[in-house]
Amino acid sequence: MPQATATEVPTRVPARQAVLPTITPTLVVTATPLVQATAVPTTGPSCALLTIYNLNLRAEPSADAALLTTIPFSTTLTAYEVNTDGWWRVDYAGQTGWVSGEYVSPPPRVSR
Fold it and tell me: What is the pTM of this model?
């Protein structure tokens, strides 16, 4: 009778797997300083705006700010800046204040 003999069976070595680097996204936030209305001079670039309603001139760019005066409908104003909320800094009757951009428009162009 034949005898069984032991044969060495090779063990399987797992293939090397690629190790990918882990990338962690980084968010970079930079702060932009706000410009205070009092720091901006009334000279420099300007544009004209036309009131499309009777309009309140406010001390600050807010509907809750102190009322300086009321500007009549169809008045042309000189504007110096606009903030991100749509308030314009304007001159009217010797006073500088703020008006909401919802109640002004560019003056009409005169055709030639």
Answer: 0.58
